[in-house]
Write a structure and sequence with these properties.
232 residues; DHBP synthase; 6 helices; twelve-stranded mixed sheet; alpha/beta
């Protein structure tokens, strides 16, 4: 999967998030297998349709992303959980209720049949999936337009800072058939916080837009959070 960053000589079309046709344009592009760059409340992301393995493969190539790192999934709203995840453990439901839409990614048991690049395995060999509902209306509308879930990873070469505006994305190596949705600067400047939940076992994998203290307060009386450093 890791073919290195794509050739940056090609340019993708840039459209404004405020344009009334943008949601339909982005949804159509995703359905035909294009990659679409989208704003979120944290950083910009590049997205692919879950039913287009060719497009998901391109996410790895564009970023130079290691093949063993799964692509997270963004949802249009919390009802989309059932599309990609098994029943959420109670602590995950609490966190989703507190921080969605927003800068929290939950790693939870995944449903069977998901594309392999969007799943990982925990230490017990169980399939997991990373999910989030972003606090960005236009992106949630695009996600709803393709069925409620999209494979989305940050719009940057692996190891480089994530994009906080649309302008740097023209150098990312997207193709003319791809699309960049310009929603202006992102309101946040950090990636999402990532929390893995398995039963009552809670691990904070990355501190980002939501502070560890906020996570711990939301879970007070449910289970102690144990902190594990390192990117996912």
């Amino acid at each position: 999967m890791n073919g290195g960053p794509a050739d940056s000589s090609a340019a993708a079309r840039v459209v404004s998030a405020a344009d009334g046709e943008t949601v339909a344009l982005a949804a159509a592009a995703l359905q035909r297998g294009a990659v679409v760059a989208l704003p979120t409340d944290t950083v910009y992301g590049i997205a692919a349709h879950l039913r287009r393995p060719d497009a998901i493969e391109r996410l790895y190539s564009i970023k130079g992303r290691p093949a063993n790192k799964a692509i997270p999934i963004l949802l249009a709203d919390a009802s989309g959980i059932n599309l990609v995840a098994e029943e959420l453990p109670p602590p995950a439901r609490i966190l989703a209720g507190c921080f969605w839409p927003g800068g929290l990614t939950l790693v939870v048991p995944g449903r069977p049949g998901l594309p392999q690049p969007v799943t990982s395995s925990d230490e017990r060999g169980r399939t997991t999936v990373a999910i989030r509902v972003p606090d960005c209306a236009v992106t949630r509308e695009v996600i709803a337009g393709v069925g409620g879930a999209l494979a989305v990873t940050s719009a940057n070469a692996s190891g480089e800072p994530p994009a906080l505006a649309a302008a740097p994305l023209t150098d990312l190596g997207l193709l003319p058939s791809d699309l960049i949705v310009d929603g202006g600067p992102t309101p946040g400047n950090k990636p999402s916080t990532i929390v893995a939940v398995a039963g009552k076992d809670i691990t904070i994998l990355r501190e980002g837009a939501i502070a560890i203290g906020e996570i711990e307060r939301a879970l007070a009386g449910v289970a102690p959070a144990r902190v594990q450093r390192g990117a996912v």
